[in-house]
Design brief:
Number of helices of chain A: 10
CATH class of chain B: Alpha Beta
Shape of chain A: globular
Distance between the termini of chain A: 40 Å
Low-confidence stretches of chain B: 250-255
Structural class of chain B: alpha/beta
Strand content of chain B: 25-35%
CATH topology of chain B: Rossmann fold
Structural class of chain A: alpha/beta
Number of strands of chain A: 22
Radius of gyration of chain A: 21 Å
Low-confidence stretches of chain A: 1-5
Number of domains of chain B: 1
Strand order of the largest sheet of chain B: 6-9-10-3-11-12
Largest sheet of chain A: 12 strands, mixed
Distance between the termini of chain B: 28 Å
Strand content of chain A: 35-45%
Largest sheet of chain B: 6 strands, mixed
Oligomer: heterodimer
Helix content of chain B: 25-40%
Mean pLDDT of chain B: 90
Chain lengths: 445, 255
């Protein structure tokens, strides 16, 4: 009996291994203490929980982790700077296993007043904007992972773009996770604030260098003031044995526009809870996604699109490619509150199955309390189109080439939306590698 | 080049072809005509290797080899080409890239060196003129946003690039206006040599004003009911397909 309790109180136990982050600011310290209290005695959700029906944390609960900052000298390769996209050459923050690396970071050529810095430093300095927004948005019912991050985070990214300022080139947040013998856990935190009429593009890139087990548990909060615009690209390429459990919350004000493109390629188990709250009139949110799973990978996206006020639009195109024994889960909730008349919400989840052994679970979930709205949603699960395959084969292309071309074509509309050319290039290479890998797995089978 | 003997084929349990015999030699143009649903497109697709059809009886011998056992891509690399009635749109792949990949696969099969993108560009320019196609269409994704006529011309462009031994043209003429039909037909004529053969599947006699067939076969209800020279097409135009079914005799059996 005691063993079961030990397993389910996994986060609680893990918390004990961390020293207090030691924020001197009373508000932050209190926020962390409160989050720690929230986890105390809280069990890990099981598959009996509706929100975790297809995503079992059983294997996670059996792992043994140490805090990432305890690893004295992580194995950082000499060419780590090669992960910086050319477009973000002058402004990027790098983190090694969640710990800020001043050496690999650079914040040149930013317009006046723009802050791109380590969150821990910004909070230590008592930055009022950061203190005002921290912990305000990343809240989910019954969720132990957001409070887990809140309770122990230290380093992370803080981005602030002041009124009417446009940061033309993307800002990259690079999370490099090294190949270590120890299994580590990290909780990077991002806080991104766009002031009125500001504009920015942020690229969040999680890269696992090895095929080791670790737990990456990031939380991002985004607050956009009136008439601001933000494009947010997230690339998850964690180790194929890692756990990636992330939370993202965006709070979007009047006349603002938030576009998120999340690409999930890595991790043994990847779980993303994403929430966009359209708090005022004439706002727009995009939550597009591309998932590729293979082997026994599982990728689970739970999204909430919350329309609270009239005349807002939202867009969700979530595409999953499933090979091997991979599993994709998509649960897309759209709330249209009573005041949110003239809402125009679009949601589509498309799954491409390349093997007979993969699984795809699609669950659109619309809760509409206003009467004058337009909400469309659809979910499809299918294989490669026979006629398209045949067409390419009659041109002499081999089965693997055909597969690669058509898989890329399936992923293309998400990839093409991403406004950073070198990420698009990166992704076409990832699709190529993915289809090659699937072939080699088939040959082994 | 191609010998088809007593070919029977079905899709989802329905027999579509009920004993086809056909012999095509190098340098010949064969027109396969017939009413809708007669099985004429099916015949082209089966020769190209479409996976939806099951050959239940008979054989297809191409250049001395059994085609039925080959994958569609293997057939293509050995020189069998099909121009589609409804060319498929392939997003994410430029037209020139597809043609270069396809061309290089065939080069490899022949033991020849592949062409790099620049060499290929030189190679394809002449072929574009053949079908009077705008070079811009090379950079567009395969058939995406092409008009009906552009799609058909693109099929013939691919034929010009890949230089097949046996070209199966599945209703390449249907849906084309007169000008486009003339361009496409002239393109096909220019590609026609003593070393290759064309099997032209068509519903209308119209295209035969431009392309002169050596043989015309009338397919009705899964069987070739009548074979003849080019004058047979004119007879058909005059009397309609009913005329053939009323005078059934070919293949030595009644319908």
């Amino acid at each position: 009996m005691t063993d079961i309790a030990k397993e389910t109180l996994f986060l609680d136990r893990l918390l004990d291994r961390f020293e207090a982050a030691g924020f001197v600011n009373g508000k932050v310290a209190e926020l962390q203490r409160e989050a720690a209290r929230e986890i105390t005695g809280k069990e890990l959700p099981t598959t009996r929980h509706e929100e975790w029906k297809y995503c079992s944390l059983k294997s996670l609960s059996k792992e043994n982790f140490v805090p990432a900052q305890n690893i004295a000298s992580p194995k950082v390769p000499a060419d780590a700077a090669g992960y910086i996209y050319p477009e973000a050459e002058h402004h990027h923050l790098a983190f090694i296993n969640g710990v800020y690396s001043e050496k690999l970071s650079k914040t040149d050529r930013l317009p006046e007043g723009v802050i791109v810095a380590n969150l821990a430093d910004v909070l230590a300095e008592g930055n009022e904007v950061a203190l005002k927004h921290l912990g305000k948005y990343a809240k989910w019912e019954d969720d132990p992972f957001a409070p887990f991050n809140t309770a122990i985070f230290r380093d992370g990214a803080f981005i602030y773009v002041p009124k009417a300022v446009k940061v033309a080139d993307p800002i990259q947040l690079l999370f490099i996770n090294t190949d270590e013998r120890e299994q580590y856990v990290m909780t990077p935190r991002c806080l991104i604030v766009g002031d009125r009429s500001s504009e920015m593009t942020v690229v969040e890139d999680h890269i696992g260098l090895g095929s080791n087990v670790y737990l990456n548990c990031p939380v991002s909060e985004i607050a956009l003031a009136e008439n601001s615009h933000m494009t947010h690209v997230k690339l998850q390429r964690d180790s194929k044995k890692a756990y990636h459990i992330s939370r993202l919350a965006a709070d979007i004000s009047r006349d603002s526009d938030y576009k998120s493109y999340a690409v999930q390629l890595g991790a043994h188990l990847s779980r993303s809870d994403v929430k966009a709250v359209l708090t005022d009139e004439n706002t727009h949110a995009t939550l597009d996604g591309l998932v590729m799973v293979n082997g026994d990978q599982l990728s689970d996206t739970h999204s909430v699109m919350d329309h609270t006020m009239p005349n807002c639009t939202s867009h969700q195109l979530h595409k999953c490619i499933i090979d091997g024994h991979g599993t994709s889960v998509f649960n897309g909730k759209i709330f249209v509150r009573q005041d949110a008349q003239k809402t125009d919400a679009f949601q589509e989840n498309r799954n491409l199955q390349l093997s007979n052994t993969g699984m795809a679970y699609a669950k659109p979930q619309l809760e509409i309390f206003a009467d004058d709205v337009s909400c469309s949603h659809g979910a499809t699960i299918g294989q490669l189109d026979k006629d398209e395959v045949f067409y390419l084969q009659t041109r002499g292309l081999r089965e693997n080439q055909t597969r690669e071309i058509l898989t890329y074509g399936f992923a293309l509309d998400v990839i093409e939306s991403i406004p950073v050319p070198s990420i698009r290039e990166r992704l076409s290479k990832e699709v190529e590698a993915y289809t090659h890998e699937s072939k080699s797995i088939q040959e082994l089978a | 080049m191609l010998t088809i003997k007593n070919l029977h084929a079905e899709v989802e349990g329905n027999e579509i072809l009920k004993g086809i015999n056909l012999e095509i030699k190098a340098g010949e143009v064969h027109a396969i005509m017939g009413p809708n649903g007669s099985g004429k497109s099916t015949l082209a697709k089966i020769i190209a290797g479409h996976p939806s059809y099951e050959v239940t009886q008979g054989e297809i011998i191409y250049e001395g080899e059994d085609l039925i056992e080959m994958e569609p891509d293997e057939r293509a690399r050995k020189g069998v080409f099909m121009a589609f009635q409804y060319p498929v749109e392939i997003p994410g792949v430029s037209n020139s890239m597809l043609m270069r990949e396809a061309y290089n696969e065939i080069q490899k099969e022949k033991g020849l060196d592949p062409l790099d993108p620049l060499e290929f560009e030189d190679y394809i320019i002449d072929k574009l003129n053949l079908v009077e196609m705008d070079q811009k269409l090379l950079d567009r994704n395969v058939n995406v946003g092409f008009s009906g006529g552009e799609k058909k011309r693109n099929e013939i462009l691919q034929m010009a690039v890949l230089k097949p031994k046996l070209a199966l043209l599945d209703e390449t003429d249907s849906g084309l206006d007169i000008d486009a039909l003339r361009i496409v037909s002239e393109g096909i004529n220019k590609l026609n040599t003593k070393d290759n053969a064309v099997m032209l599947v068509t519903h209308y006699q119209r295209i035969l004003n431009y392309i002169t067939p050596d043989f015309v076969h009338v397919l009705v209800n899964g069987r070739i009911h009548k074979s003849g020279g080019k004058e047979l097409a004119l007879e058909l135009e005059k009397h309609g397909y009913e005329w053939v079914t009323a005078n059934t005799e070919v293949n030595g059996e009644a319908k």
